[in-house]
Write a structure and sequence with these properties.
heterodimer; A: 321 residues; mainly alpha; two-stranded antiparallel sheet; 14 helices; 2 strands; disordered C terminus; B: 293 residues
């Protein structure tokens, strides 16, 4: 009976659920489903940097924003095809991620956290104040997308695109983590000195972590601009960082599937509390604190303990959790 | 213009220095940066607001209540966040304090935020708000009060830190916790005291600042970033560095806002953090310890 809830079955059920959703649900539910898929991308990317490589970087929401702004602005100002705009958004987010990585590679721990918090706030300031380009604090509307001849409805088009991208990039991340790169990240997280003495090029693998997670964030950002149709600075503020962190932490730091579970699980919470900012802050702040204090391994560690078929490579040993 | 900008930079800088002191105090003894420090500041301000504006108590009573309330909140932070995670890695601690900060922010917004016209509440000046001319420049009496108050608190704190038994115990613990423990200091109590003291200085700063700006549940994070900039500029872990850094950040901000572009006032603290960390991570007066281990 418990075998029924092994990871393979749960993931398969999730895939079927998200594939069927657009055919049966109303537009609002489709939008929520789309958000959930997008958050999966974000949390997989963030988990690589934070959970696997152990880099305490707050720049993720800013890169998410760069992806969204680039995609949205190219669509609005140049009327570029959405696909091209999305690719450009991912590209610029990745380049920005690399630009963050350059100085960040020299910093560790708290210094890295401080520098990236400052970077995130500076980016937000640019979004808010560079009026001639970003339309300032009020943001801008992205022109309606066109997915002809596949579907007449833009929301389903974005949904399908997000679904396909998730379908491609989650296994990509999963495989990357099981490769030499993922193992190098975990070694760096556990001890930089030990990793270096094993011949791991720390600088190179850290840079890869920043770039790959920036790619995920940029992709999610571009899709976000497309699905929401409006881009405003407040979608990328510090509270968003908390939401992203919360998803990864509650799901399970250092576990791809944990991040996926966290993303899907918390989208609903965010939607329910949408109108109540203070309750959102209490809920997400409290959840982070609760998880860190009570179940440091996140939800996925409970699944690992009680259900068969959830074991992952590169997991932390039991006494760490 | 220049004199005015310097004057206002000094008075805001004094507040940054006060917030930075608490941050450095906790950092020196625990090795962790309290990301919820800004929210402790904000909450202290709202406690004073409740007593001063809503209940109509005298200013100094409200200040005293806010300082005590801030202390208790600092102790709460120690008990709920720091103590259970004392052996956890730095990453976990940062995440926990970030979570705690949003929890407090949400609670503050629940009680005092989301009124009609936004989350901001006005905190009336404790002294006559009309500016008075001093040496040819117009100065707000509240600015003088801020400066005087900050000076007073820094002096009191320095005396506490240098001369009293508790202060010396804190210094000993910061220097070497194991040795302090072996010489009979109850290190855990000192930690509690440290978190409390840091938070009560921040609360005092919030009460002094509130009449100059407005109070909102979101002010905490801005102040935290200014205090980060001050500590980083002065050298993380250096107490005099944090105070001087606070004044410098205040003045730089004021000058950048006045001469270059008004928007730069907000962003200059972030630029200071990034530039200092990238080019001179040990800060202006820092101990030469480039990396956290």
């Amino acid at each position: 009976m418990r075998r029924l809830f092994s990871r393979r079955n749960v993931v398969a059920a999730g895939l079927v659920f998200f594939a069927v959703l657009p055919f049966v649900a109303n537009p609002y539910v489709i939008f929520i489903g789309n958000l959930a898929l997008m958050y999966i991308l974000l949390s997989v990317g963030l988990n690589m940097l934070l959970g696997y490589a152990g880099q305490l970087a707050f720049a993720h929401a800013a890169l998410f924003g760069v992806g969204a702004y680039t995609t949205g602005l190219l669509k609005l100002e140049l009327d570029l095809h959405y696909g091209l705009a999305l690719v450009a958004g991912v590209g610029l987010a990745t380049v920005t991620g690399l630009a963050v990585a350059m100085p960040a590679l020299r910093l560790r721990g708290l210094y890295l956290a401080l520098a990236t918090v400052a970077f995130a706030q500076a980016t937000l300031w640019v979004f808010t104040h560079w009026n001639s380009v970003t339309y300032g604090g009020a943001g801008f509307r992205v022109p309606p997308l066109d997915f002809e001849p596949f579907t007449p409805r833009p929301d389903i088009g974005v949904y399908a695109l997000t679904y396909v991208i998730v379908l491609a990039s989650v296994p990509l991340g999963w495989n990357l983590l099981r490769s030499r790169v993922g193992r190098a990240w975990v070694a760096i997280r556990e001890s930089e000195v030990a990793a270096e003495s094993l011949g791991i090029d720390i600088t190179r693998y850290k840079a890869i972590a920043y770039v790959v997670s920036a790619m995920y964030a940029g992709t999610a950002g571009g899709l976000f601009a497309g699905m929401l149709g409006i881009v405003t600075p407040e979608s990328f503020d510090l509270f968003q960082v908390i939401v992203h962190f919360c998803m990864v932490i509650v799901g399970g730091l250092g576990s791809i599937w944990g991040g996926v579970i966290g993303a899907v699980g918390l989208v609903g919470l965010q939607e329910v509390l949408r109108a109540f900012r203070h309750l959102q802050e209490i809920a997400f702040g409290g959840l982070i604190l609760f998880t860190v204090l009570v179940i440091p391994g996140g939800a996925v560690s409970l699944l690992k303990r009680y259900l068969p078929g959830w074991k992952e490579p590169l997991r932390r040993t039991e006494h760490d959790e | 213009m220049f004199a005015y900008l310097i004057a206002s930079g000094i008075s805001t800088g004094a507040l940054y220095a006060m917030v930075a002191i608490g941050l450095v105090l906790v950092y020196r003894s625990t090795g962790h940066i309290n990301f919820s420090h800004g929210e402790l500041f904000m909450f202290g301000g709202f406690i004073a607001y409740t007593f001063f504006v809503i209940l109509g108590m005298p200013y100094f009573v409200s200040l005293a209540v806010a300082v005590i309330g801030g202390f208790l909140l600092g102790v709460l932070c120690d008990r709920t966040v720091y103590r259970p995670l004392i052996k956890a890695p730095a990453l976990t601690m940062v995440l926990a304090t970030v979570g705690f900060s949003f929890l407090i922010k949400g609670v503050a917004r629940f009680f005092w935020g989301a009124r009609e016209g936004g989350d901001y509440v006005a905190f009336p000046a404790a002294v006559d708000p009309a500016p008075i001319p001093i040496g040819g420049i117009m100065v707000f009496p509240q600015q003088l009060l801020v400066l005087g108050g900050a000076f007073f608190f820094v002096v009191v704190f320095t005396i506490f830190f240098r001369r009293t038994r508790w202060g010396k115990m804190m210094q000993a613990t910061a220097e070497n916790a194991t040795a302090a423990f072996l010489s009979g200091i109850r290190v855990e109590r000192v930690y509690t005291m440290t978190w409390g003291t840091g938070a009560c200085i921040a609360s005092a700063a919030a009460v002094l600042m509130a009449p100059l700006t407005l109070l909102s549940p979101d002010v905490g994070f801005n102040l935290l970033l200014r205090a980060f900039a001050a500590t980083v500029l002065g050298g993380l872990g250096s107490m005099p560095g944090a105070i001087i850094g606070g004044f410098l950040v205040g003045i730089i901000e004021s000058l950048a806002g006045g001469y270059l572009h008004t928007g730069l006032q907000e962003v200059s603290a972030f630029i200071i953090i990034i530039v200092v960390l990238v080019f001179r991570p040990s800060g202006l007066f820092g101990i030469h310890k480039l990396r956290e281990t």
